[in-house]
Amino acid sequence: MPGKLVALICRHGETKLNANNCFRGWIDVPLDEIGEQQAQAAAEFLSQFPIQRVISSPLFRAVVTAETFALPANLPITQDRGLLPWHVGVLSGTDKGENMPALKLFVENAEIKIPNGESLQEFEERAYEFYDRELRRAKTDGLTVFFAHTSNVTVLENLVRGERGGEPETGETVKPGGVCAIYATADGYEIEPVFGKPEPANYGS
To answer: Which pTM does this prediction carry?
Structure first.
């Protein structure tokens, strides 16, 4: 065992923007039919764990994914803006293939704010503050599940590795509806995919 399991993080199910390979950012797009099926599969996987706390991004696609698990389990859902994805501003809703070079400029210059959005530095600070607080709470308040976005998983991977200010060159995240386990260790935390096919990690999702 890598350590004590203290939390899990579930990526929301698919949306039309996922299917069309577009940046989502803070666009409040709902799950599509496949996304609803992925949310149900994630709920069935999560049901094997003695989860006591459920925390979700406020965006609809994450909340619905959380509800699919939490309502049958009779668990309340706390919405927290700390789990909002990177606000990619004017890039939201645009094609990833065409606009990834533009996004990478903001990754390489983490202090520069994306027009109508936020800088990578601002996003990381918000996410790190959330994880620092809630992972410490999870150690004492019970197993916690976070329902969030690709960029939340990516920045958590960076936090665990002690990296900041850039997209990880290696590492894994999970497909829509996938789950990673977060373990507390003597040196900090470890994260590993436990449900859902791993994919290259990336921001802006």
So the answer is: 0.92
Q: Token match 């976005």: residue?
A: 149
Q: Report the C-alpha gap between 117 and 88 in whole angstroms.
A: 5
Cα(152)–Cα(133) distance, integer angstroms: 15
Task: Provide CB contacts within 8 A for 114, sequence distance 6+.
Answer: 87, 88, 89, 90, 91, 106
Give the architecture (CATH level 2) of 4-200. Answer: 3-Layer(aba) Sandwich (3.40)
pLDDT tens-digit readout, 53-92 = 999 999 999 999 999 999 999 999 999 999 999 999 999 9
> Hey, where are the domains in the chain?
4-200
Q: Are the C-beta atoms of 122 and 167 separated by less than 8 Å?
A: no
Asked if 96 and 67 count as a contact pair (C-beta separation under 8 A), the reply is no
Running DSSP on this structure, what letter comes out for residue 15? B
Q: Which residues contact 61 (CB under 8 A, 6 or more apart)?
A: 12, 13, 15, 24, 28, 29, 30, 31, 35
Residues 6+ apart with CB under 8 A from 25: 85, 86, 87, 88, 89, 91, 92, 93, 117, 204
Determine the Cα–Cα distance for residues 94 and 157; give it in Å rounded to an integer: 25
By three-state DSSP, how is residue 182 classified?
strand
Q: At 30, which amino acid appears? A: P
